[in-house]
Amino acid sequence: MTECSDAVKYTKTKGVSLLLASLIMLAGILLFGLSTESSEKEPEGLKDYYSDNFLIGVALHPALFDNPDSAGLIKKHFNTITPENDMKWGMIHPVLDEYRFERADRIAEFAQANNIKLIGHTLVWHSQLGWGVLTKEGSTGPDDMVDSDTLISRIKDHIFTVAGRYKGKIHGWDVVNEALNEDGTMRESGFYKLTGDTFIEKAFEFARQADPGAELYYNDFNLVKPEKRQGAIRIIRKLQKKGLKIDAVGIQAHWGMDWPKLEQIEKSILEFSELGIKVMFTELDVSALPSPSGDFSADISISFNNSDELNPYKNGFPESADEELAKRYRDIFEVFNRYKDKIGRVTFWGLHDGISWKNNFPVPGRTDYPLLFDREMKPKKAYYSVIELLKEK
Fold first, then answer.
1. Which is catalytic among the residues 178, 201, 205, 215?
2. Residue 5 pLDDT > 50
3. Beta bridge partner(s), residue 56
């Protein structure tokens, strides 16, 4: 009886041990499977596909946060945001003694709440400027200009107030915007007429002092043109020679279906990166419409009359054009991906076609289709063409 009882006990014990071992093994298999499934989970948004290449950004305004669809689209696809207008001088500092931070604050709060990097746009720009910046206080006309020292003092006050308010919340600032003519010479703006190019140096100096942790950029359009690119290179080299911080150049990418050539984009990346700075494509959109002037300038003072010839898709975007746009985006991103080590960010100038500035520039009232998401905020063929590039690897 004793021997039989011991055998039974042994058998039961062995059975329990085997059962426990089997359960542990099964649990391990299940956990491994879950881990494998998690690690192989398909990226959710554009930013996830490009997480190993460069940041993916979008320009926006705070009303988009009130719509769950647009807010969700931003959070899913982008890891940087740029205020389209709400940090420009005229919006945030409309008159000399008044600042309006409400809209910019909302954007900063959204960025922080959703772990999105915020790009400040822009500290010094001749356009959309606050009232009275260039003229003496109490002046009633544009001809009674201040002296150079007064203007530099106003620039300093503006930068310290704005960049200082968002210190630690801004990933990078477009410090100076569009200071060049198309031939690479200095634009005859009020800033330049009063200070020469000193205003550029001082703007970068003040921005560094106001927020030492923020990256600092020079931003301009048509920098793929050799002569204008050389003008930007001169600005950057002069800042570097004076020991002033500049982290990147922002190439506004308001492009078309056949301009610029891919070789021009490539050459721009290479020439700027030779300066030891990063390249940002800061305002990307690809107009599907014909250009009335033959190029794609972003000079907002330009305007042309609307016509059927210039507005061919007012009743809808045909599949053939949709496919052509997708190919154009694919070609552009092939270049970006080739030089991902030199590019820090690609920002789309608008969330979806319905709110793109290209519907009204340079021809008011047109219907354009320049972005990756359509008017219903659905991904277009262009979106899929951009992510397929990474899926193929």
1. 178
2. no
3. 346
Across 82-91, 93-102, 292-301, least confident range: 292-301
CA distance 349 to 252: 9
Is residue 271 flagged as an active site residue? no
Tens-digit pLDDT profile for residues 126-164? 999 999 999 998 776 667 899 999 999 999 999 999 999
Backbone angles phi, psi at 235, to 5 degrees: -60, -45
Distance CA 170, CA 78 (A): 16
User: Which residues, 6+ apart, have CB-to-CB distance to 188 below 8 Å?
Assistant: 181
Mean pLDDT of the chain: 89
Query: Quick check: is 283 catalytic?
Result: yes
DSSP states of 334-386 as a string?
A: HHHHHTTTTEEEEEESSSSGGG-GGGTSSSTT-----SSB-TTS-B-HHHHHH
Residue 228, CB-side half-sphere exposure with 13 Å CA sphere: 19
Catalytic: which of 201, 205, 215, 283?
Answer: 283
Does an H or E element contain 174, and which? Answer: strand 172-177
Comparing 297 with 16, the larger pLDDT belongs to 297
Smallest CA-to-CA distance from 259 within 296, 292, 293 is with: 296
